[in-house]
Design goal:
three-stranded antiparallel beta sheet; 267 residues; mainly alpha; Cytochrome Bc1 Complex, Chain D, domain 2; 9 helices; single chain; two-stranded antiparallel sheet; 2 domains
Length: 267
């Protein structure tokens, strides 16, 4: 192992960066396996410590041998005073390198990760017992799309004259279809007016804002022959229809009915 004799602050920063880049796997099986490995390592170190304490009390004569085992597991290190003997010739930015050996416990952990990698690849790629990340991602996409559809159903039903918004181009096209299905008998094929008023000019009988149009369609104007559509059209449909009607402003169709009401000025 190569050790660097550098500023402790730089080492601390590097450790912090490494800690920030760590992660907890979202896959429950992987998290469980890693958790078990960590538990086994901690338990192993705890057992060694307990065994040392027990040997010191029960078998004082065995302590040197046990210390030798622990020392062998930890590996040999060179005292600071003797670091010149393992100092390498490589120097970079005033930093010298020490040619220390990797401690055995580190090597054993590294070998364990290799074994774990083979087990992981075999389990996920050859046994078919679980899904790969791409399959989980695709499944989550399907679930998210279903959740979005359900949300839109509830959101569409919550639209009213207080929160109605101008629909997008697709919504206006839907409004065009709704208009041709439900409104042409009174307002003409292109909103030029008939029994009902002209919807393409600047004059309005009951207000010309999006909220006003939505409210008029929703509740109707019974005294003028305009029925309420709230039982026949969903709130989303009324929003789409309102947006389409406002998009007709200034289209100047042929045979347009004379203006009725007052000019609407947006506030």
């Amino acid at each position: 192992m190569i050790l660097l004799t550098a500023d402790p602050t730089a080492i601390t920063d590097a450790a912090a960066t490494a800690a920030q880049s760590s992660f907890i796997p979202s896959d429950p099986i992987s998290a469980f396996i890693i958790g078990v490995l960590v538990f086994l390592i901690v338990a192993f170190l705890f057992l060694i410590s307990a065994m040392i304490q027990f040997t010191r009390i029960a078998f004082p004569s065995k302590e040197p041998a046990l210390k030798g085992f622990v020392q062998q597991l930890a590996g040999t290190t060179v005292a600071i005073e003797e670091e010149e003997s393992i100092m390498m010739d490589h120097v970079y930015d005033g930093i010298r390198e020490l040619d220390n050996d990797l401690p055995p416990w580190w090597k054993y952990l590294f070998y364990a990760t290799i074994v774990f990698a083979f087990v992981y690849v075999y389990y996920y790629h050859f046994t078919g017992n679980d899904k790969l990340q791409i399959a989980e991602y695709q499944q989550e996409q399907v679930e998210a799309e279903l959740a979005m559809v359900e949300y839109r159903k509830h959101a569409a039903n919550s639209i009213d004259e207080t929160n109605v918004k101008m629909p997008d181009e697709a919504g206006i096209k839907e409004g065009d279809v709704l208009f041709k299905e439900n409104c042409v008998a009174c307002h003409g094929k292109v909103g030029e007016g008939g029994v009902g008023p002209n919807l393409t000019d600047e004059f309005w009988l009951h207000g010309g804002s999006l909220e006003d149009v939505f409210k008029t369609i929703k509740y109707g104007v019974p005294q003028k022959g305009m029925i309420s559509w709230k039982s026949q059209l969903s709130p989303l449909n009324i929003q789409q229809l309102s947006g389409y009607i406002l998009s007709l402003k200034g289209t100047n169709p042929a045979n347009a009915k004379a203006a009725q009401g007052e000019i609407y000025v947006a506030k």
